[in-house]
Amino acid sequence: MARPNSVRYLDRNGILLQVTPLADGLRREIPEHIPGQVKEVFIFAEDRRFYRHFGVDALAFSRALFQNLTQRMVVSGASTITMQLARLISIEATPANTSRRGGELRRKIGEAVNAMRLETRLSKDEILELYLNSVPFGFNTEGVASASRTFFASELSMLSPAQIFCLAVIPRRPSLYNPLENPGACVSAAAELHANFSRSKRRSSAWPLLADITIYDWKFAASSARRFAYPFELPHLIRHINAGQSEPRSEIYLSIDLGLQHFLEGAVAGSVIRHQTARLTNGAAIVIDNETGEILAWVGSYDFNNEEAAGQVDGVLALNQPGSSMKPLLYAMALEKGFKPNDVIADIQMSFGVSEVYLPRNFNNRFNGPMLFRTSLASSLNIPAVYLLYRLGVRNFTYQLFSLGFDSLERSADEVGLGLALGNAPVSLKELVRSFSVFPRDGVYIPLTWELNGRTQQNSIIEQRIFSADTSRLICSILSDPDARVLAFGPATSFRTPFPSIFKTGTANQFQSIVALGATTKYSVGVWMGNFTGETVIGRTGSSVPAATVRDTLVFLHGRGSAQEFPTPENWQPQRICALSGMMPTHVCPATINEYIQTGEENRPCTWHQMVDGRFEVVFPAEYQAWFNTAVRQGSIDFSSRPLEITNPRDGFVYLSSSGIGRNEIPVEVIGGTEDELHVTFNGRSFSITRPFVFFLERSPGFHTLHVQSGYEERVVTFTVQP
């Protein structure tokens, strides 16, 4: 009863996905129901007085003994069904026992004793069921359910009466009577069994189905025998499920839609094959239902059997750097902590850290100056993301990610530090899609399930609110805005769907991992492409490759235009803002856009666009002075718009001494201040400079103190140059 059994996996529509073999390749299925006619035929074939004895049939034993003695050979074994079951489970039934003189007799006696023991502990129906589920048929097959599939490619309940009689004779001599190799011998023995069955004038509930079998029925039984080609669908997911199964089960309905699964497998394989010259060797994908958390498709790799491309590695569970695909979670946390969609974030050269300085750069190695919150996320700018994480705190964001199910970050989050904003910590595609689905679900997190109807009651879904509904709706508004992503992606067709949808992509810093996420109100899709071996993808593939697969999958799911609109925030109203400053536009603002402003909040008039001496001019805040001076730009800097601040070096910085290559100085930048002259004292030496306050200091080993003063404001930092 404790023996392992094969598990039948079916998709949500009842289509067979796999019948898992046991470790030795044997298949032993446990059917939910064994038809009565199958029981009748096997009882008649093996043990006609099964319900009238206590494990040993004395009458059959006496007849068999007489026949064997008369014929001086074994003609009949007289084993009852219970004795056969005892032999199947007895540890004493080994070839060594039967090879010794008298071993056969001792084995029979042992079977008889164990049969009577079984009869005292189990009912007749339980014994019969155990026997029918354990009887060997050869061909790595045990049990009537697996035998029906192996020899007739049919479910047990779909067998014809002639096929049932054929099935009943196979265990006698599988090498002779199996219908795959010897259909004539099988049908002949089955017809003889049926004739004896009919002559016995048995009357039972199964009799009408088993009584009349014509010559055509026997011909069909012989011709219908064919070896079943066991399907091998969802190899990665089913292996994952089997590894986590604690209780044995005979049949599992998965939430998988096989039609969608095949479409997605083809889409992933097609993309990989088309871009193999770019050293893109594998891909993975997952689709979930946002309302239930059910997994609808799971593609672990483009070819499970491709050993060269590590096809048996499950890309849905494998840990890879997600790149910018995690940025929406960071921006959502920023909105929760008081940032607003019309805030401007400086996309300028910034340095973070102390002894280990982090200098993030954008994907195009450019600094874009002032960027609206919306554009920073939609165009996936790196420096604004790192700035937000610096303001929010790495530890706080890490805890936020833990609440979203990113268990894989427990060891790596602290190591990557601010790089977490750019997706430098490896996570799984499953974790990414699960977290991304929070946004179309109005900020509510639910765990995923691979089992159909795994949650029969709505209250059995464990819900956890991560973000407010308005925050999630704002993120959906940003990620569905094609105009906001033009800076980075241009008019990309990979994100275009005939219905409302959101997208986010990410590329690892070594281009060995490319991720695309997409969602509608109903579904979320994630696609990963790259290399399990860690090789860099070459050429100009980019995130558009997995993004196109995400788009095509959403279109496959929805058709043309059937997805709902994303709901609008309840406590925010769209208003016109200055496209540069995010403030309320004035008559001199040249460009305006719509953005959500919190209800009841007053957006102050734009101060960046001014009329100076009768001409239009842009006046940038002080923090943009270095960016402003790197190119010829229209406008000016309002140097006194901020208090005096030494932006570089920061207090506590540690530098290495010069290697003789490149500049031998330390760059200094000071912003703000009320005066246009800056008084500098460095290691006891004093001098003055005028705006912009950018200069260089000698990089000499030792501990250094820098003191600056502008009007009544002064600042001091210390730093070290290691020899």
Give a written overview of the molecule.
This protein has 723 residues and is α+β, with helices and mostly antiparallel strands. A hairpin with a 2-residue loop joins strand 20 (609-612) and strand 21 (615-621). Helix 3 (81-89) packs across helix 6 and helix 15 (327-336) crosses helix 21 (469-479). It has 24 helices and 30 strands. The strands form ten sheets. It has a five-stranded antiparallel beta sheet, with helices on both faces.
Counting DSSP H or I runs of 4 or more residues, the number of helices is 24
* Rg, Cα atoms, Å: 37 Å
Biggest sheet strand order reads 8-7-17-16-15
Can you summarize the main beta sheet? Answer: 5 strands, antiparallel
Quote the distance from N terminus to C terminus: 74 Å
The helix content is 25-40%
Q: Which class best fits the helix and strand makeup?
A: alpha+beta
As residue ranges, the low-confidence spans are 96-101, 455-459
Q: What is the general shape?
A: elongated
Q: How many distinct beta strands?
A: 30
Q: Give the strand content.
A: 15-25%
> What would the average pLDDT be, to the nearest integer?
87
Descriptors:
723 residues; alpha+beta; five-stranded antiparallel β-sheet; five-stranded mixed β-sheet
Write a brief structural summary.
This protein is an alpha+beta fold. It starts with 7 loop residues before the first strand and ends with a strand.
SSE blueprint:
Elements: E1 8-10, E2 16-19, E3 27-28, H1 36-46, H2 58-71, H3 81-89, H4 95-99, H5 103-121, H6 124-132, E4 136-138, E5 141-142, H7 144-152, H8 161-169, H9 174-177, H10 183-199, H11 207-210, H12 215-224, H13 235-244, E6 251-253, H14 258-274, E7 282-289, E8 295-299, E9 319-320, H15 327-336, E10 344-347, E11 369-372, H16 373-378, H17 382-392, H18 394-403, H19 413-416, E12 427-428, H20 429-436, E13 444-445, E14 464-465, H21 469-479, H22 486-489, E15 502-507, E16 513-519, E17 523-530, H23 544-558, E18 572-578, E19 592-598, E20 609-612, E21 615-621, H24 625-628, E22 636-638, E23 645-648, E24 654-656, E25 665-671, E26 677-682, E27 685-690, E28 693-698, E29 702-710, E30 713-722
Parallel strand pairs: 1-6, 3-5, 21-22, 24-30
Antiparallel strand pairs: 1-2, 4-5, 7-8, 7-17, 9-12, 10-11, 13-14, 15-16, 16-17, 18-19, 20-21, 23-25, 25-28, 26-27, 26-29, 29-30
